[in-house]
Amino acid sequence: MPSHRPSRHSGQVVALPGQTRSRPSPAGLERFNAAPADVAERALLACCGSHRWARRLAAHRPYPDLAALLAAADEAAYDLSPADLSEALAREPLPQIPADAQSVAHTALSAAHAAYEARFGHVFIICLDDMSPEEALDQVLAAIRSRLANDPEEERCLTAEELRGLARGRLSRMARTGAPLPR
């Protein structure tokens, strides 16, 4: 699926809508727990772009299970300062839409993203983990239009919540797949 903005994460774990849930791979979490701190931090930065968040999670390893890792991730996300949140948002790509979406939809989405960024000063993010690919485009367009009416502080809170959701999904996929961590 093409994105409207290139990803800023090398080796990014992409949040694809409609993915099925499976059990975490013990090897994935074990590999993460055993990785050198800098390698673990790079893997975490692919989940959330805040260096403070990534350093905090890497420093508190080992995690006995995925639930403990996700709880620590949530706690660290709630503690993000406005500057940390801005750093994470600056590293987020725009939500992806299906490649077969009509060009009119791409144009509408590009215009909506531009209006959002002009209003709030950061990229629009939304967690689409539990959404089917067929619903993603409509959901993104509806959400962006709705959220344009928010005041900046309310939108910052909603954005932080969406970022937490994205990070949780990415962490879960990292632990579930057991994929090699970035070098």
Give the CATH architecture of the largest domain: Orthogonal Bundle
- Name the CATH superfamily classification of the largest domain: Oxo-4-hydroxy-4-carboxy-5-ureidoimidazoline decarboxylase
Mean of residue pLDDT? Answer: 82
Q: How much beta, percentage-wise?
A: under 5%
Distance between the termini: 26 Å
Number of strands: 0
Following the backbone from N to C, one meets helices and strands in this order, namely HHHHHHHH
Q: What general form does the structure show?
A: globular
Q: From the helix content, strand content and strand pairing, which structural class follows?
A: mainly alpha
Helix content: 55-70%
Largest sheet: none
Q: Give the low-confidence spans.
A: 1-25
- CATH topology term of the largest domain: UraD-like
Count of individual helical segments: 8
The first-level CATH class name of the largest domain: Mainly Alpha
The value of Rg in angstroms is 16 Å
Count of folded domains: 2
